[in-house]
UniProtKB/TrEMBL annotation:
Species the sequence originates in: Nocardioides acrostichi
InterPro entries in the cross-refs: HotDog_dom_sf
Domain of life: Bacteria
Pfam families assigned: 4HBT_2
Protein name in UniProt: Thioesterase family protein
Length: 167
């Protein structure tokens, strides 16, 4: 995934924003920018926030005994984020299977109006009774399908790593 094939900041910015925040000094590494370990955490926070709208609340494990577990990631760093830079997350759902979903998570540098990082994720629906994958509940499956269809109509093609797929 190169920067010239990814959607631009201008393309992504109109999408709903999640996990909006400045880069805190505690997240800085010895190079003076956001430490690599925090990109995934910030992006995951944004993905979790975006899933509330499809019936997956943050407290899903305690309220319903269901959870989403990440199964696979592919991360591409495109531009550094430095302490104090404003950042936000955009999420595009690409597809789902009976027990999994496929998403692209974009971390934007809102201070410099550029795409900083993109990661592709496969996440699984887990029934916490036995901590195994399970079919999506019908209402969540329908809401995921609706969001996937909405995102398919965005007018631009998503760029994936080509290294993962739904099974």
């Amino acid at each position: 995934m190169s920067t010239d094939t990814q959607p631009s900041y201008e393309t992504l910015a109109p999408m709903p924003a999640f996990a909006e925040q400045p880069v805190p000094i505690a997240f800085e590494d010895n190079n003076g920018h956001l430490n690599v370990r925090h990109y995934l955490g910030i992006g995951s926070e944004g993905l979790d926030e975006s899933l509330v709208g499809v019936g997956i609340p943050i407290n899903w494990p305690t309220s319903a005994g269901h959870a989403c577990f990440a199964a696979e990631h592919h991360v591409t760093y495109l531009a550094e984020l430095r302490t104090g830079d404003r950042m936000s997350v955009r999420v595009r759902l690409l597809g789902r299977s009976e027990r999994a979903a496929h998403a692209l998570v974009y971390i934007l540098d809102d201070t410099h109006e550029r795409l900083s990082c993109v990661f592709e994720e496969i996440f699984l629906h887990i029934d916490l009774k036995d901590r195994k994958t399970a079919p999506w509940p019908d209402d969540v499956a329908q809401a995921l399908d609706d969001r996937i269809a909405e995102h398919a109509g965005l007018g631009w093609e998503p760029v994936t790593s080509g290294s993962m797929r739904l099974r």
